[in-house]
Amino acid sequence: MLRISSLAKVAAATTLSAVVGLSANAADRVSDFSLVDHNGKFFQLSRQANFDAIVMLAHEDSRDVRRAASELADLTEQFADQNVGFYLIDSSGSGDQAEMREIAEDADIDLPILIDEGQLVAAELGITRATDVVILDPEAKEVVFRGALNDRWAEGSRARRASEHYAADALTAFLAGEEITAEQLASKGNLIAFGTTESISYANDIVPILKERCVSCHMEGGIAPFAMTNHQMVQGWSPMIREVLYTKRMPPGQIDDAYVHDFRDVAHITVEETQQLIAWIEDGAKNTGDSDPLAEYSPEWVKWAYGEPDMVIDVPPQTIPATGVQDYRNIMVPLELEEDVWVKAVEFEAGDPTVLHHIIAFAYGPNGVNEFEILNQGIGLGAYAPGNEINTYPENSGFPLQAGGGLMLQLHYTTSGRETTDASEIALYLWDEEPERQVLGGSAAELNIDVPPFAQRHEMVATAKFRKDSYLTMLGPHMHYRGYDANFKLVYPDGREEEVLNVPNYQFNWQKVYDFKEPKFVPAGTEMVFTGTFDNSEHNPANPDPSQTLSWGEQTWQEMFFGFYRYVEAGTEGGE
Fold first, then answer.
1. What residues does each domain of the chain span?
2. Span 149-196, pLDDT tens digits
3. Distance of CA 15 to the CA centre of its chain
4. What is the CATH number of domain 311-435?
5. How many Cβ atoms are within 10 Å of 113's Cβ, its own excluded?
């Protein structure tokens, strides 16, 4: 629940704005934040700095808001030749995108509806009522106007038509670089029903969240930059924790809530958990108890998280120089198998994760590498990238390794400013008997990439078709630094379409793959449609050079566009 002090701050700001106009020089600074809209598109305030201003209207499903939204649409036409972004923001507590899409369609709303399910952004912006309008300077991250859209929507007004256009006047002044003198009056929309505050206990409320959502990476020997070993450590990092929760950078590789329950081992945090963490941090991140249960919790780092492997393959040590571009390294590793075996899981242990970008393990047979077979393996029998160390297959399915064959390892390194040696390891887990089905791989890919310089949102689409009845088992988007979002959709032979995964905030540093809990049947003729967006603008914090035209290439400052997937054919035995 949100803290009383946060809500009191919001209420005080709104009361003050009813009688005193805010000038652009006295704007309210706000935290960077991220939300997802009703169409599954990602919004981050700092990445909207291509706009000179952002206008938001507080939304709920009511007749008043529908009318106010219609007037906001008129405002978008009035400022159509200006560089302004217009949005609705729904802080009613509903996080159902499908429901919100129905509401938007019924109300004929064309603007994006940002879903603030946890009500944190409403509190941050000082929104207290439906139909409230805020105008933001996205570059400075400041609220420059907060109040009623016009005198028709001002508190206590009975006007049927607007004669005083407060938001329009404020926007005009702000865009002209002039002082905002428009009145900032409280709106007459329904009060937002913010949650009431309950006492939050570090020991009873916060520590269980950290154990469940964070400590598996934030532990001694883990991949995170700091270990959550005690209260003092968490308190010291609490401003950063607040920032990554507000901007949805953590947990990494988040997907739309609608799909969380469809996949195994998804990084996820609930709305309620986020609210509790934010409230606790804003209250000073205190431990008022006599003990520190986090300090008493000592998870033991285990080298092989999947269990004791049947085989461990030592990747030949690779020397990585301090600087310079590193070409892909393709290394042949004979396995010296005396008989065919079937793999059921693969786990990677990075030797030096500061330089190892990825490993993809492909299989070859006794006759050596067949390029066609390699291409048809997709991401092979397994792939490593930060956050994706374990690759598993569905029950009763596996990947064959032939006697006399081995692995072709594709290694990609990035330099770190110091010379180092990477000696990674690969663990294989084998079936005792031949499984029922063979795991196959593929991708919906597009190699013809042409992203213009400074392009803010450049969308691409790639497709692939299933030739036989199959079961889809895994999805994995792959782009580089300019990747912004990713989406997988199935188009069935009868024309029916089904979205199966949406990744609103694609993060190159976390190359996640998503394994279905239950393999999904796809009939022969089904088309996989992979859609992704590139952000080649200067507002993409990961962009090494927005002035470059992007084309396909293996290096991270170039781009790729792959929608990887794994599947098994239906009704086939032993992969035949």
1. 4-175, 202-296, 311-435, 440-569
2. 999 999 988 888 888 999 999 999 999 999 999 999 999 999 998 877
3. 36
4. 2.60.120.230
5. 23
